[in-house]
Amino acid sequence: MRIKLILNIVGEEAIIPINYQYYISSFIYKCINSADNQFSEWLHDKGFTAGNKTFKLFTFSNLYIPEREIKGSFIKIKSKKIELIISMISEKIYDNLIIGMFRNQTFNLNHREINISFPIQSVEMMPEPEFSDTMKFRAITPIVISKKSEYMGKESEIYMNPLEKDYTYYLKKNLEDKYIAYSANSDKQFIEYSIEEIKIARNTKSKLITVCEGRKEETKVKGYLYDFEIKGAPEIIKFAYNAGLGKLSSLGFGCIKPING
Fold first, then answer.
1. Residue 74's closest CA among 23, 16, 14?
2. Separation in Å, CA 102 to CA 18, 79, 155
3. Among 12, 57, 81, 94, which is least packed by CB within 10 angstroms?
């Protein structure tokens, strides 16, 4: 399920941080919280689990800003309206998100230097594409994949490049783990689906995004934008489209759209 938010810009212009992903994620949680506090806490603190892995199973696009200007670490918005797409697999997330948005009717961004609100003009349900066993997609936000590595006795996560030999193995594994977690935490009957193959185009582009900028939790996340072809059961391809691909999807990573040709 996907919804499109159209936000109004009050006044002649507005300024937001370039690294705004954390604030959109916070907005989503706040909307869900205003509709169902217990579910919001469960989703934020625990989420959909399988073994020792947890997932939130929603993602979102970049803000679509038709007219803008970059000023240092901020974006000056010159458009009268901007758009945001939010994508999710869980009907409960969808229902509570919609209720929360209609209760609040504003998108609030509370940065350490900026406190700004955008009235929500409209919330539109987006039609889903027709899913088949072979489809081409484009990452519209960076896809993040990492693996554990040990250096001098310390374990850490290493961000992977899509051209690495075992990258698609980790990408497929992450998606299948997400699907298992969703099935285990919902009333949906578990049916085993798998991805046969993912072919990544060679024109990949890396992107480094700072999450929680200026806070003690600040970290830099490296992901990649690319086109790819995926083969597998239509059901799990649809799941990837709605839940997001790769890690940290609840911070706006791994949002994809279908492409033709």
1. 16
2. 27, 23, 44
3. 12
